[in-house]
């Protein structure tokens, strides 16, 4: 039962939705408020913690982020910042969304912040048609409704601060 | 307690957090992401999409409701506003909304609106021809905007309406009466309430829409927004009723009768309370025992308090120093500030409006306490008469006093006072409630006169 947990250098096993198991050091897992709460409430004796909505690819990314931040928590912030931006660089949108979902579920605030900001930056300054295309959002307005909404938005208000 | 830990596989977790834990992706090669169903922005729950949208700069927002119904719904939700506020993304912008002059009326442009904003370097010069930017659009309101505390001038712009809106409300409807109408904000929309017409101005799009007028025509009435609704009182000889406007249904209804029929009063709100302050008594009859002057004096410095939620009136209060209330506003931390005139000087009072249950400021027990504050830095010996008028707006915890009529410079000159230190029309004075100090804001641009003012978080 406690096969994956050692006394001094505790580890736990996380299982992804697609069945892959990840052995994680406890201090790395503590980056996740969800896992922290589980460990605090003495629920840590389970041999495997299933994370049924997080696939292996995403979980690997999440744990990579956690490890870096756990190991570097006392080191320079600048180094972490550059790690963060490098971490998300060239990541495709699908992976980013998975990351946001995972960070939200596992309650990893820092990761949620950078991933959500990265998505927001992609939306920024784009016309709505382009946003629809990039994010595959279906236009569910009827032509009449769209015309009406468009009418309301005919002019951008120039007085904005 | 240990029972909850019995499950070796955290079924409690999967049950509570994953509606369908048995669901497995139909994929067999976890290392080939190309084959998986792609997660899209549409798979995100509302709170995550809101989180993302709330991070966008303001300039990106106006066109986003066009993306889809869901996006529109989220962007217009109270949660979105709340998140933006928590994130410090909202700027309290002071809007000055004004009527155009008569030359513009000839061009079928009855109103101008000004809005004063941060960081704007635009020139204030405006021409009538710039008003109609499209053939079917009429710049019926003009605005100047400014963010208090930022070292930039007011930025001017227009709110545009379709021609049919403008035609339905031909020039003259606010003629001479606009300065007596009231301007309020709910969310990011501004409501201009005139005697017989109401307009809704959208601060994202600059769009103007006509809305239902009040049931009773009013002039120089008190108005304030409480809990997403608008309350008006006073300003009508025929009724003492208090009306409530619901923007969602675009409808007015009478909710109460005011204890006093006032005219020329000021309205404000904080902590769920609608304050009706100052003004003159309407309909004082000759048969009354007390002299009309005494009754009027009481009205001029008194304040009626309507609890909008409980639908009841609290005991009326009066400014301790007496005098005549010339302007009033509330600030977020729970105070009502009142500017009163005593013929040759102004005094500035703070009413503690923090109610016991709102927990703000640690106090709460001091509800109803008056405190005299430092007077605004106007030249002391100014004669205050009907040629001078002030407007007061709460912006966060600051009070902005704007002189909307008259010119202290002229008065000083007439009285042999010094030039240059006076206050001309459109002077903006800012009182910092925290520091207890006054400072001078940028003057209103020339094109904006007799404006009404409102603070909008946007």
From TrEMBL, chain A:
Keywords tagged on the record: Ubl conjugation pathway
CDD domains xrefs: BTB_POZ_SKP1
Ranges in a coiled coil: none
GO biological process: jasmonic acid mediated signaling pathway; protein ubiquitination; ubiquitin-dependent protein catabolic process
Key word Nucleotide-binding present: no
Start and end residues of each SKP1 component POZ domain: 11-70
Record-annotated SKP1 component dimerisation domain positions: 109-156
Annotated metabolic or biological route of this protein: Protein modification; protein ubiquitination
Similarity field: Belongs to the SKP1 family.
Function: Involved in ubiquitination and subsequent proteasomal degradation of target proteins. Together with CUL1, RBX1 and a F-box protein, it forms a SCF E3 ubiquitin ligase complex. The functional specificity of this complex depends on the type of F-box protein. In the SCF complex, it serves as an adapter that links the F-box protein to CUL1.
Record's subunit section: Part of a SCF (SKP1-cullin-F-box) protein ligase complex.
The protein's name: SKP1-like protein
Organism annotation: Rhododendron griersonianum
Taxon lineage: Eukaryota, Viridiplantae, Streptophyta, Embryophyta, Tracheophyta
Automatic annotation (TrEMBL), chain B:
Residues covered by the F-box domain: 38-86
A Pfam family matched in the record: Kelch_1
InterPro entries found in the cross-reference section: F-box-like_dom_sf (IPR036047), F-box/kelch-repeat_ARATH (IPR050354), F-box_dom (IPR001810), Kelch-typ_b-propeller (IPR015915), Kelch_1 (IPR006652)
SUPFAM superfamilies found in the cross-reference section: F-box domain, Kelch motif
Signal sequence range: none
Coiled-coil stretches: none
Domain of life: Eukaryota
Protein's recorded name: F-box domain-containing protein
Organism expressing this protein natively: Rhododendron griersonianum
Source organism phylogeny: Eukaryota, Viridiplantae, Streptophyta, Embryophyta, Tracheophyta
């Amino acid at each position: 039962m406690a096969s994956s947990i050692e006394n001094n250098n505790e580890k736990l096993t996380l299982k992804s939705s697609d069945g892959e198991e990840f052995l994680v050091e406890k201090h790395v897992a503590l980056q996740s408020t969800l896992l922290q709460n589980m460990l605090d409430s003495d629920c840590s004796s389970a041999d495997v913690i299933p994370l049924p909505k997080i696939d292996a690819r995403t979980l690997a990314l999440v744990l990579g982020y956690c490890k870096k931040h756990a190991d570097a928590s006392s080191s320079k912030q600048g180094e972490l910042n550059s790690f963060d931006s490098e971490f998300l660089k060239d990541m495709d949108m699908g992976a980013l969304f998975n990351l946001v979902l995972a960070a939200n579920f596992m309650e990893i605030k820092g990761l949620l912040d950078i991933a959500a900001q990265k998505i927001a930056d992609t939306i920024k300054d784009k016309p709505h048609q382009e946003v629809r295309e990039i994010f595959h959002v279906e236009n569910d307005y009827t032509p009449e409704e769209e015309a009406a909404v468009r009418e309301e938005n005919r002019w951008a208000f120039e007085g904005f601060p | 307690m240990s029972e909850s830990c019995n499950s070796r596989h955290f079924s409690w977790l999967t049950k509570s957090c994953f509606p369908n834990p048995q669901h497995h992706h139909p994929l067999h090669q976890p290392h080939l992401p190309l084959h998986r169903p792609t997660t899209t922005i549409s798979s995100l729950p509302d709170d995550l999409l809101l989180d993302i949208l709330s991070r966008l700069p303001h300039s990106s927002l106006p066109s986003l409701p066009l993306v889809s119904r869901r996006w529109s719904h989220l962007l217009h939700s109270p949660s979105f506003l709340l998140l933006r506020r928590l994130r410090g993304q909202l700027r309290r912008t002071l809007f000055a909304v004004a009527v155009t002059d008569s030359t513009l009326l000839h061009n079928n442009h009855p109103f101008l609106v000004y809005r004063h904003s941060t960081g704007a370097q635009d020139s204030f010069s405006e021409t009538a021809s710039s008003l109609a930017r499209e053939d079917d659009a009429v710049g019926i309101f003009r605005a100047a905007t400014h963010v208090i505390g930022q070292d930039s001038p007011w930025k001017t712009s227009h709110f545009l309406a379709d021609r049919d809106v403008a035609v339905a409300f031909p020039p003259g409807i606010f003629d001479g009466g606009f300065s007596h109408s009231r301007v309020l904000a709910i969310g990011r929309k501004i409501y201009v309430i005139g005697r017989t017409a109401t307009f809704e101005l959208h601060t994202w799009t600059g769009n103007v829409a006509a809305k239902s007028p009040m049931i009773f025509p009013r002039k120089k009435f008190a108005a304030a927004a409480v809990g997403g609704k608008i309350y008006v009182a006073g300003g009508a000889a025929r009724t003492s009723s208090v009306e409530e406007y619901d923007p969602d249904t675009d409808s007015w209804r009478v909710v109460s009768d005011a204890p006093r029929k006032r005219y020329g009063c000021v309205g404000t709100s904080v902590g769920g309370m609608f304050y009706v302050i100052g003004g003159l008594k309407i309909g004082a009859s000759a048969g009354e025992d007390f002299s009309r002057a005494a009754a009027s004096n009481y009205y001029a410095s008194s304040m009626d308090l309507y609890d909008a939620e409980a639908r009841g009136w609290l005991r009326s209060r009066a400014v301790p120093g007496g005098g005549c209330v010339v302007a009033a506003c509330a600030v977020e931390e729970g105070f009502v500030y009142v500017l009163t005139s005593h013929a040759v000087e102004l005094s500035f009072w703070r009413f503690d409006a923090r109610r016991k249950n709102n927990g703000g400021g640690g106090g709460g027990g001091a509800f109803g306490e008056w405190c005299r504050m430092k007077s605004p830095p106007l030249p002391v010996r100014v004669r205050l008469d009907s040629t001078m008028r002030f407007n007061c707006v709460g912006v966060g915890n600051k009070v902005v006093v704007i002189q909307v009529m008259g010119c202290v410079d002229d008065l000083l000159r007439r009285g042999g006072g010094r030039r240059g230190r006076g206050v001309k029309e459109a002077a903006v004075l800012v009182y910092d409630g925290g520091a207890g100090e006054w400072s001078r804001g940028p003057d209103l641009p020339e094109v904006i006169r007799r404006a009404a003012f409102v603070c909008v978080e946007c």
